[in-house]
Amino acid sequence: MEQVREAGFAGAESIERLYELLHATGMGPGWNKPEPSLWPLPKRTFVPAHWQYSLSRPAMDAAGRFVGTELAERRNLILFNPAAGDRYATARTMVAAYQMVKANETARSHRHSPNALRLVVDTRPGAYTVVEGKKIPMVPGDVLLTPNWCWHGHSNESDGNAYWIDFLDAPLVHLLGPMFFEPFPGGMERTEEVDESSPMRFPFAAVRARLDSMTPPGSKQVRLGPPYLDSMALFVTRLESGSTVVTERATDNSIFAVIEGGGRSIVEETEFEWRRGDVFVVPSWHKHTFRAAQTSYVLRVSDEPVMEKFNWRRQE
Ligand SMILES: [Fe+2]
Known about the structure:
alpha+beta, Jelly Rolls, 18% helix
């Protein structure tokens, strides 16, 4: 066989025949690729997009009529990017999803290699995320971490439905391959221990107090942590009413969620008006302009640590 192939290459009478022989032997001519493998600037494959809480909340309520948490691992709505061919990722490396757990309902415990966090939108006292055997209160505006391989489940012991937004680096794990998932033996990890000051919780009241005490006025930002997730950096920004904040094109992807307030964003040629509970994505290499209509607090989830780690963090 090898001899036949060697003879074939030696006897190739044209470059077209050479390409046929190369193809048949699992090789491609690097000088004649169907598409270039290197290009001068990041491609804008993922597109700016916006999801409204005013639409997703009734959608979750409707799902609540049909889908129980006994059936679904999670009752959540995936915010997939409208980029061609994508049905899962919100940005290339991250996914965001709205989730609802009804009053007196649990979402069973599990653990997975993707890192996750959630921003609480609407809950009443008695809604908890159970992380590693401790109940962490879910108060609107709070950010809760469940890093790589931490057991976590949700227990809504309040008298109302609980709504929040999840963020995971699962699309990055899909790209790289190291996916592991394990259900908790027996379902929900039951516990009576409440840990209000868990390091996995960033209460909004404390974050807001830090932002409000900063001087001078203008755009103010804090990074949440420690602890830090390895793949995603979390920032909360306070935007002053009437202010404009411009961010130049950068390699990192950002998913925003509005904790409080309202305004507009202009992402290259796309514009949207956002308010409390909304999510929007500014993919890699898109210029972003904020115009706050009211004093606003916005969470940004960014894959900046990945870009930093590999020295791929660049701004135009
Ligand atoms: Fe999970």
